Amino acid sequence: MPRTKTVWRSITGAVALSALVALAPSPASAKTEIQFWHAMTGQLGDATNELVRQFNESQSEYEVKPLRKGTYPETLTAAIAAYRQRQAPNIVQVFEAGTQTMMLSGAVHPVYQLFKEQEIAMDWKDFIAPVVGYYSKDGNLYSMPFNSSTPIFYYNKDVFQKAGLDPAKPPQTWKQVEEYSKKIIASGAAKCGFSTGWPSWTMVENMHAWHDQPFATRRNGFDGLDVQLLINKEFGVKHVSQLAAWQKDNVYSYGGRTGTADPKFVNGECAMYIQSSALIGGFTRGVKFAWGSGQLPHWGPPYAKATSIIGGATLWIMKGKPANENRGTAKFLKFISETNQQMWWHVTTGYLAISNSAVKNLEAGYHFKKNPDQWTAFAQLTRGKATANSQGLRLGNFVQIRDVIESELENIFAGKKTAKQGLDDAVAKSNDLLKEFAAANKQ
Amino acid sequence: MQRTVFRSWWLPYVLVFPQMAVTMIFFFWPALKSLQLSLYRVSPFGDSMTFVGLGNFTKLLADPEYYRSVVNSLVFAAGVTVLAVAGALVLAALATQKIRGLAAYRTLLLWPYGIAPPVAGIIFLFIFHPTYGVLPYFLSFVTAYEFNWLLKGWVALTLVIAATAWTHLGYNIAFFIAGLLAIPGAVMEAADVDGAGPVRRFRSIVFPLVSPITFYLVVLNMVFAFFESFGVIDAVTKGGPGDATMIMVYKLYKDGFIGLNLGSSGAQSVILMALVIGLTMLQFRFAEKKVTYR
After folding, report:
1. Among B residues 7-66, those touching chain A with beta carbons less than 8 Å apart
2. Which terminus has fewer CB within 10 Å in chain B: N or C?
């Protein structure tokens, strides 16, 4: 039996040795680390990680470290908090509603400037117009488009068949949506006609753009900070009051904000659904019935048909990072915008390919013929007649404004306010928020 | 009460220091920072701070939405407190009978307290959500009335009150069981002999004797309902529908962290703190008189 003193000595020796080994300087890692914060989850998160892995393996100087920080608002809040501590990531993914906040913040390194400084060539003209228009100021791109989508119309082909409708023909007008819904409910093929996700984005922002109606003054906010909303005018009231009326006989079934209504379509409760084109990938894998897609329904004359607006997010570069990290960041952005990566990203996730060359390649490979749903989104965005009302929105405090609009929509759908009352209240509150933003950002 | 005497003059300070440090760093410092923030208009990224004096406060007090959130908070706090305290007293009375498996029942009654509020919220979501919840599915076979709390405000408020009260039941039950067991059996037997029925016994003996505990729990539950209810609301309704479940602490989070208006958020937290301190002082002044201390 070893004596206690010897036992103690050996234990101390072992601990000391392992401490030495642990503290021994590891060979200096040659790779510069680039921190990339994003909000992608599930299948999209896997795709993001894979894209990053492809970049890391393609070269040996830089290593991009992707980190999911939470939802879009949580990621933005985290980036702001980190920036205040001078520990911001290099790249942060910010959703489109945060564009104005980021642009005027003074905390970002505009993308066009980054590329100019690093002397890396980039064909800015190759990006598709709606995406570039949304994120540029004075013709220069501020953030890198990453995952752009647009809302499209999904429908359950099996239910159409059962109700006696042609499964190859989705409704084109809102009148047809009503007609088809009533037929479907009467035949018992489904409980409700249609539902929507992201109600402000799909039913207010996009409907105004799609029907060539202004969402706000000053060219939807692009021309200045003294903006006011215009959603309580004739078109807004007409569309929202129709939705409220439809809510009463299940032609429309409100399912909550963001994507909480997705189960309504996926489990067959509602025959039709309006949501982001980014769901194509998930639906292809997860939905059990035959489904198809079409362009967003339109009211027809007297409203013209313009285009829909993009949603999703872009990558913003934070200011104040050392030059060698900036070089790595620029290389990463260049990598993800190359045609091969664009095509891969689009095919895997369903998000739009943002460069014309990528689209041309996809067309040449009959990709769109084999995946007509992907073409739906693309055609809706680029093949319509783009007008000043359909190029997107640039509003400050837009996260709160969307919240105000969705809150009032809930009041309207619950029958607590008429459409006109609710929209008037939404406009009044939003205009206050816009005034506050303008005051806080006096340029 | 005996006074503890330490032999070394520095030992008491050393022992108290860690707790004081934690309280200073995690409570007083942030509170002072909030107070400071409430007097400024801050840009999200912190690069500009303009002094606006009481501007944030006047804006809040002129906002009807803010008053609605105060009313919602009061209704919510009252609902949670009544439900959690009364419910706990009843369950504790049941858990002090001489029945088989008493230990098991007590454990099961106390368990929900260990569940984090967001988890409780998610559980309630899976039971009650109009789209994918279990209960609406079964209810649809019984009644045509849609308890769709995505649209009906009062249903949403009832749901979050019930969920929050449920999570806090365990804590209250533990205290009440202790209180009930402390009632001397002789008193109860004497009352029984005198012909007092169970209701009379409860009213005249049990309730006054547990009143110190009841008072303590009412104060605590009320404070908890104002501050710690954030988790359930965030997991279940996020302040909706409309602003039916927008309580003060959730509005404060939404304006500050989602809306990035840190000045207003700071002002709201100052008002919330003042409100709860006021309510607690009121309770100590008036309700404590009714408490029978032994």
Report:
1. 41, 43-48, 50, 65
2. N
